[in-house]
Write a sequence for this structure.
DNA sequence: TTACGAATCCGGACCGAGGTCCGCTTAATT
DNA sequence: AATTAAGCGGACCTCGGTCCGGATTCGTAA
C-alpha cells in the first residue's frame, strides 16, 4: 500500500479520466507531478527519497520522518531532499499525492454518486463522506503534512477539492455565494478538525458522517417559501 | 494599544462581568492568567517579556519575535521565556490574551446584540461579525499564534468561543447536533481562512461578513414545513 | 526583625531539526 | 569531446526547546 504511494509519484503525469461531461475546465486535474521532465539521476533520487520516507513512517511514525533521516535512508545528500520537495511539508504532501489523485479521479470521473451522473446534492454528500474517511485513514500523515496557516488553503490538492465543491454548489444553489459556502464545507473536512473531534472529543466517525449530511442539507436548503 | 495588551496580562485574574442570565456555568471565563500567584521576580519578568515581545512586533513584525530576541530585549535568560510561556505559541497567545478576554466579556456580559438580551440568532450574527473583525485586525499575530494542527482546537480561547456558539445554537436549534454545527461555524471564523480569503483571494471584509450572516441563516433554518 | 530552609525561579550552555549555500559532479546536447 | 545546464552533498546557520547548577524569594519561627 505504501509502496503504491511512492511508486505513483514516479509514474508519468496522471491517467486522465475520460473527460466527464461536467468536469470544470479550470480544474487542472494533473499538475505535472514535477517539472515536466526530471533528469535521470534526479528522478531516481526522488523515488528513493519517497521510498525511504514511506519506510521511515512505517517504522517510526510520522515523527520519525526527519529530513536528515530521510536523506540518510535514501543514501542521498540533505540538500537533495530540499531541492526536490522544497520543505518537509512538500515531502509529506508528495507522499499523499497518490491518494489525492485517486480521490480526484473518483469524483471527477468515477462511478456515481461520487462521480458524474448522480444529482449534485448526492455527489456532494458522497464527496464529504469519501474525504472524511480518507482523512481518517491517514490522519497522522495528513496532520503532519498540513502547511503553516498562511499556506493552508493555497496548495493544489486543497484547491482541487474546493473547486469541486464550488462547482457542485453552483449547480444546487446558483444564487448563493458558492465560494464561501464551499470554503465552509471544506473546513468541516479539515483533518485537524477530524482529529480533534474523533481523538480528542471521542466522537465516532458515524456522527461526523451524519453531521456532514446534515450540514449539506442545511446549507443547500433554499429559502423556504413564505 | 499594544501596551494594554501586555499590561492586562499582569493584572489580577479578570473582572468577572456581572453574571448574565444565560452564561453557561461550564464556561470558565477567567482561567487565572497563570498559577494563582507568581513569585515577585517571576511576575516582573513575565511583564518585561510581554512588553519586549510587543515592542519587537511593533518594530520588526511577528517574524521578529524570536524567543532569543525576546529574552534579550527583556534582559532575561532564554530559559525564563520558556518556563513562563511554554513555547512560542504560548507567548504569542499571551499577547492576544487581553483582546480575547475583552471579546469574551463582551459576548458574555456586554450590551446586546452581542451580549445577553437579544434573541440568540441576533447574538450569533453579531458574534461572528465581532470575531471576524477582531481577527482581521490582528491577523498576523493570530496566524503566528496558531498552534500546530494537533492542538488547534484545544486551547482555552477557542474553546470559549465554541462553547458560546454551542450555547446559542442550542437555544435556536435544540434538535440539531449543536457541537458539530458550532465547530463548523467556528471554522468559518478561522484566522487562516480569513487570511486566505482576504489577502490571497482579495475578498473584501464586507463579503465575508455577508457570508457569515448567510451561513447563520442557512444553518439555523429549521426544516421547512412540507 | 532576623535567620533559615525549601520551593521556586533564573540563565545560558547545549541539542536537534529545518533550511540555505556554494563549489563540485554528472547527465543531456551538439 | 566539449559545452552547459541541472543536480548533488554536506558544511553551516538559525531557532525552538531542554536541562541543571546556582541564585532568589518567601513562609516560618526564633
Amino acid at each position: 500500500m505504501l509502496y503504491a504511494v511512492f511508486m505513483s509519484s514516479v509514474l508519468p503525469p496522471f491517467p486522465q479520466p475520460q473527460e466527464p461531461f461536467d468536469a470544470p475546465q479550470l480544474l487542472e486535474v494533473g499538475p505535472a507531478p514535477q517539472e515536466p521532465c526530471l533528469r535521470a539521476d534526479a528522478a531516481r533520487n526522488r523515488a528513493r527519497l519517497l521510498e525511504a520516507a514511506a519506510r521511515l513512517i512505517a517504522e517510526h511514525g510520522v515523527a520519525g520522518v526527519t529530513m536528515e533521516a530521510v536523506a540518510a535512508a535514501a543514501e542521498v545528500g540533505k540538500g537533495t531532499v530540499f531541492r526536490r520537495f522544497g520543505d518537509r511539508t512538500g515531502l509529506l504532501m508528495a507522499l499523499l499525492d497518490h491518494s489525492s489523485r485517486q480521490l480526484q479521479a473518483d469524483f471527477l470521473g468515477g462511478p456515481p454518486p461520487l462521480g458524474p451522473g448522480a444529482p449534485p446534492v448526492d455527489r456532494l454528500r458522497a464527496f464529504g463522506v469519501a474525504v472524511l474517511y480518507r482523512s481518517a485513514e491517514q490522519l497522522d500523515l495528513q496532520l503532519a503534512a498540513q502547511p503553516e496557516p498562511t499556506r493552508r488553503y493555497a496548495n493544489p490538492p486543497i484547491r482541487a477539492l474546493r473547486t469541486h465543491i464550488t462547482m457542485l454548489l453552483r449547480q444546487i444553489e446558483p444564487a448563493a455565494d458558492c465560494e464561501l459556502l464551499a470554503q465552509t464545507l471544506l473546513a468541516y473536512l479539515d483533518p485537524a478538525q477530524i482529529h480533534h473531534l474523533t481523538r480528542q472529543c471521542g466522537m465516532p466517525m458515524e456522527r461526523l458522517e451524519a453531521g456532514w449530511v446534515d450540514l449539506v442539507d442545511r446549507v443547500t436548503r433554499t429559502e423556504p417559501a413564505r
User: Anything to note?
Assistant: The CA atoms of residues 108 and 115 of chain B lie 6 Å apart. The interface with chain A takes residues 143, 146, 149-150, 152-154, 176-177, 179-181, 183-184, 187-188, 190-193, 195-197, 200-201, 207-208, 210-211, 214-215, 218-219, 221, 223-225 of chain B (CB under 8 Å). Confidence is low (pLDDT under 50) at residues 1-32 of chain B.
